[in-house]
Amino acid sequence: MRLAPDADPLTLAFGRVFIAGVVLLPFGLRALQTGDTQTGQSAMPSRRDIVLTCIAGVFLALHFYAWFSSLQRTTVMRSTVLVCTTPVWVGLLEGLVLRRPPPRRYWPGIGIALMGIIGLTLGETLGADTGAAEGLDPAAGDSLALLGSWLGASYFVIGSVVRQRVGIAVYGPLVCLAAAAALFVLAAVQGAPWIPTGPAIAVVLAMAAGPQLLGHVGFNWAVRYIPARVIASMILLEPVGASVLAAVLLHELPTVEDCGWGLLLLIGVGVAVSQPQPEPQKEAVNP
Predict the structure, then answer these.
(1) CA distance linking residue 264 with residue 117, whole number of Å
(2) CB–CB of 273/233 below 8 Å?
(3) What is the distance between the alpha carbons of residues 166 and 35, in angstroms, rounded to a whole number?
(4) Count of H-run helices and E-run strands, the chain
(5) Which helix or strand (DSSP H or E) is residue 250 part of?
(6) Cα–Cα distance, 279 to 277 (Å, whole number)
(7) Where in the sequence is the domain holding 196, given as residue range(s)?
(8) Is 276 helix (H, G, I), strand (E, B) or coil?
(9) Which helix (H) or strand (E) holds 149?
(10) Residue 4 burial by Cβ neighbours in a 10 Å radius (0-12, 13-18, 19+)
(11) How many CB atoms lie within 10 A of CB 279?
């Protein structure tokens, strides 16, 4: 996103999900024709699941729009760590809406990880040289990143429900194209271009190939087998990767203190996603 500073966030977000949706569409159509090869059942989702998937796509579209807008207003590290508070909201939504309270060790793990996130944010705020460009608006960027985390949590939770019944071959292109449709409308309303130009072309292609097809589609595949809160917790690794990329490509060098906070974040992720070991069953004693 930061490698195309002059591109409209809507243009980049639309290109990312539209390309991914088009690439995945043939696999979805094939799945609809052949059905489930294991059970012999049709792969056609119900009307309810189609509606839910489209709603998830709208949340995904707004998530990208808010986050990409945030990256134009604040530094990479600050924007990334704030948008990665998603697991907190996922845990709350799963408990309140789906009646799936997380295990007890999830919340201490998230607490530890959030301490790392807060430490990274404060370290960037108080540091002498954060690498931020002039003209940024950190307050607006922080607010948009936090909004993006709420929208992303809704997307994950809805997807975890739909993926119990809809295969990834069908869900993947449908949710991407639904997000693209929502962004298309937003771009039309705001007068933003749909087709990127200049360096933004390479940025959009890279976004679609890596973060979208491998990242988000991979999460959508895994969310059927792993609770959404665990998938969302793994997103807390993004600030570490983002910090490394920002240091190499944007010359935003993290301090030793930042690295320490990042390590604390990783420890929190490990605690949050670890599953308690079942107690061994005692052998029955014959009388």
Answers:
(1) 9
(2) yes
(3) 11
(4) 12, 0
(5) none
(6) 6
(7) 9-273
(8) coil
(9) helix 138-162
(10) buried
(11) 6
Here the tokens at position 218 are: 């991979």
pLDDT at res. 217: 78
Instruction: Please state, as a whole number, how many other Cβ atoms lie within 10 Å of the Cβ of residue 150.
Output: 19
251: which 2 tokens? 């010359």
pLDDT 10s digits, 48-66: 999 999 999 999 999 999 9
What is the number of structural domains in the chain?
1
Is the residue at 282 inside a domain? no
3-state helix, strand, coil in the chain (%, to 5): 70, 0, 30
- Which range, of 57-71, 99-113, 205-219, averages the lowest pLDDT? 99-113
- Are 255 and 262 in contact, with CB atoms under 8 Å apart? no
Residue 183 lies in a domain: yes
Residue 113 belongs to some domain of the structure: yes
Find out whether 271 and 112 touch, Cβ atoms under 8 Å: yes
The verdict on residue 198 lying in a domain is: yes
| Six token digits for residue 273 | 């996603």
